[in-house]
Every structure is written in C-alpha cells, then in structure tokens.
Amino acid sequence: MEPDKVVLEAADSASQSCPPCPRRQVRSLILHLLYAADAFDYEASVEGLADQFNRGFDTDIPAGGEIVLTVKAIVENRKKYDEFLIPLLSNWRLERIGCCTRLVLHLALWELMETDTPATIILNEAIELAKCFSEKDAYKFVNGVLDKAVRQLGRDVQ
Asked: Distance between CA atoms of 22 and 85, rounded to whole angstroms?
C-alpha cells in the first residue's frame, strides 16, 4: 500500500473511531506527528501539529489525548533514546539511519520503556511500521536493533 494512502486511511479511521481506534492506527498517527515534529526541527508544538493534521486530514486528535501526550514524551526523550540506541547499532552510526527508521525505533523504545505492552507486539508493530514508512529493508534492521534492546531492558519475548 502506498504511504500516502496509509496516512489518509489511518487519519480517516482515527477521525471516525478515536480514541478506541486500533493500536496500529494510533502508532501510525504517532509516527506521522513525530515525522512532522522532526521536519520542523522540533520547534513546532505537538499540539499545533495535531491541529494541522486535524484540519488537513479531517482527523480528531485531541490536544491533551494519548496521541499528543505520547508524541510529546518521545520528543522530550529523543536524546535519551538515541543514547540508548548507539551501543546497539553494530557497525552503524546513528546519523546514517533514515529519519523514519529512527522515529520507528524511538516509538518502539518508548513503548518498551514506558508501557507494559508485550515486547513481541511492540517488535511486530515496529517492523510493520518500518515496512510501510522506512527504506526497503529497514524492517530487518529495526528487528535486529529492537531484539537487542529487548534483551538489554530485560523484557521477555515470547
């Protein structure tokens, strides 16, 4: 499926069923807001970006809702996530990782560190996001890095 079509379908679905929309669509919206924040060098407010999405894609992302709060938490801790990732990047430098791949990793690390969502679900969802929005084989890289992260964090993979 084309990335633009995924964005519009996720945005459309979110406007109809948020907050109880499927977790993958929530993650997709979070990733899109993270991408927008990155594109604006983290100078635009997350609430402002959500408002732009609401008007541009006919979504209904609440300013104080889960999606905005999650994006804010990831943005605020992005340097912590980068520092955590560096030792896990065998033969890679952080600056060589594509933007979307890095953001998928940040989202997954936030989930691994801050939620009780099973690690297998987090890894699977991160791989699927990477398949949709990152470079062609980035999902393999995401899988390998997050596998190391899960072990380092002492999370169980069942």
From this structure: 28
The total domain count for the chain is: 2
- Alpha-carbon separation of residue 95 from 15, 26, 85, 110, 133 (angstroms): 35, 27, 11, 20, 18
Parts of the chain with a pLDDT under 70: 1-21, 158
pLDDT per residue over 5-49, tens digit each?
A: 333 344 444 333 334 448 889 999 999 999 999 999 999 999 999
- Residue 62 sits in the same domain as residue 29: yes
Same domain membership, residue 69 and residue 5: yes
CA distance 38 to 22: 25
Q: Which domain holds residue 48?
A: 1-76
Is residue 82 located within the same domain as residue 154? Answer: yes
Q: Could you tell me the pTM of the whole model?
A: 0.84
| Token reading at 148 | 């190391």
User: By the 8 A CB rule, do 119 and 156 touch?
Assistant: yes
